[in-house]
Amino acid sequence: MAEDDLEIDLDDLQRRMDGAMSALKHEFASLRTGRASASMVEPIHVDAYGALTPINQVATVNVPEPRMVTINVWDKALVNKVEKAIMESGLGINPQKNGTIIMLPIPELNEERRKELSKVAAQYAEHARVAVRNVRRDGMEQIKKAKAAGMSEDDQKVWHDEIQDLTDKQIAQIDRALEAKQQEIMQV
Predict the structure, then answer these.
(1) C-beta of residue 67 within 8 angstroms of C-beta of residue 21
(2) Where in the cell is it found (predicted)?
């Protein structure tokens, strides 16, 4: 058995765990916290020219003030389609048209809505934790295969500890991100 077969690819595990974290940050960015953010319209797709197209590929999205998002639609023919896509997106914001510019005034969040968003953020964080634990499980499987290939007990313990340490750090990072997002959501 080659020595390479007894190595665990920690870089790959780290990269996959980081991927879970970046997906979480992307999901958090789409949560409306009462502050305007261009990323809140990123998930919205518009039926443009016969294909579902991300809103930022048919318009310029700006945040001119803390409680306003403006969407400057490039093609006049798409203004109504963009407006319809925003209304159907579940953002809970009523767009206001002004020529080719659509304005999204961001209302203050009430306490009930803040609590709902906080729960959604917690669900996103739990999905990220599950993803990290799945990567950890894959790492443990690699150790089992390496054990079958002749890895020593001591090496197994070292790799096991490395993977567990990596997992613990990622879970702690997810928990910190969740706490910060929930504070941001609950802030009046």
Answers:
(1) no
(2) Cytoplasm
